[in-house]
Amino acid sequence: MRFQHKNILVIGGSSGIGLDLIKLLTSEGATIYAASRSRSEEWPATLNYQEMDVMQGVELLASFVPDELHGLVYCVGNINLKPFNRISERDLVDDFRLNVVGAALSIQQALKSLKNVPSASIVLLSSVAAKTGMGFHSSIAASKAAVEGLALSLAAELSSSQIRVNVVSPSLTNTPLAAKLLNTPEKMEASAKRHPIGKFGEPKDISAAIAFLLSEDSSWITGQIIPVDGGISNLKTNF
User: Fold this and answer.
1) Which residues contact residue 77 at a Cβ distance below 8 angstroms, ignoring those fewer than 6 apart?
2) Mean per-residue pLDDT for 173-189?
3) How far apart are CA 61 and CA 83, in angstroms?
4) Angstrom distances, CA of residue 209 to CA of 59, 75, 218, 225
5) Mean pLDDT of 195-210
6) CA 21/CA 10 separation, integer angstroms
């Protein structure tokens, strides 16, 4: 099993991609430390839990994480889509705090434990909207682009400590956060057609990519932004 005797911290793992990731990592032997606002009834009984709201601070992580931490995944996110003229200063600040500041501060709290193992991995989540212009995505696109910049800088800085930092950049994925975008057959069909491969994403598509980046199978991969998006960011199939 790829994650036998590995400690993995998942921040924001009570639903969607994070929940699917926890199930996958546990099935492959990982010991999971999960920090989120609420528990999930689908979590394995062996999971270690810390109640935490990223928007209120992440200081609790310092005493929660084990001395040796092999991986950290920041799965916290939101989908705040509005016309640009309706985006408030609070929207912009909250999106940046949730996606960028929360990730940065969480990594700071866990960094000592990450440095205590020979080769640790950090995986952050971005969005296809960070690099592909999409209407109504101004706030989330700006904050996710900042996540990518943060990750690249950290990958360079932490490489001397043998800590890898990568980003998975999904397109629309069938999670509770995206429920309003996929709540009718018509919306589901339209969303599927927008992707060259003919379907929208499922949590397992994203969690599989994250697990690969956490594993030793990707030991020579760092500083990469990896789209997992059905081809929407790079392919044009409708002429």
Assistant:
1) 12, 98, 99, 125, 177
2) 78
3) 36
4) 28, 13, 10, 12
5) 92
6) 9
For the record, the structure tokens of 5 come out as 């005797």
Instruction: For the chain, state the CA radius of gyration.
Output: 17
What is residue 179's predicted lDDT score, i.e. its pLDDT? 66
Domains of the chain: 7-176+203-228 (3.40.50.720)
Say how far apart CA 116 and CA 206 lie, in whole Å.
27
Q: Round to whole Å and give the CA distance between 195 and 173.
A: 11
Query: Which pairing describes strands 120-125 and 163-170: parallel, antiparallel, or unpaired?
Result: parallel
Q: Are 47 and 71 in contact (CB under 8 A)?
A: no
- Average pLDDT of the chain is 94
Rounded (10°) angle between helices 16-27 and 203-214:
50
Report the residue count for the chain. 239
Q: Are 214 and 3 in contact (CB under 8 A)?
A: yes
For 140-168, b/e burial (b = at least 16 CB within 10 A) is bbbbbbbbbebbbebbeebeeeebbbbbb
| pLDDT tens-place string over residues 78-109 | 888 899 999 999 999 999 999 999 999 999 99
Tokens for 95, please give them: 């999106």
Distance CA 98, CA 77 (A): 7
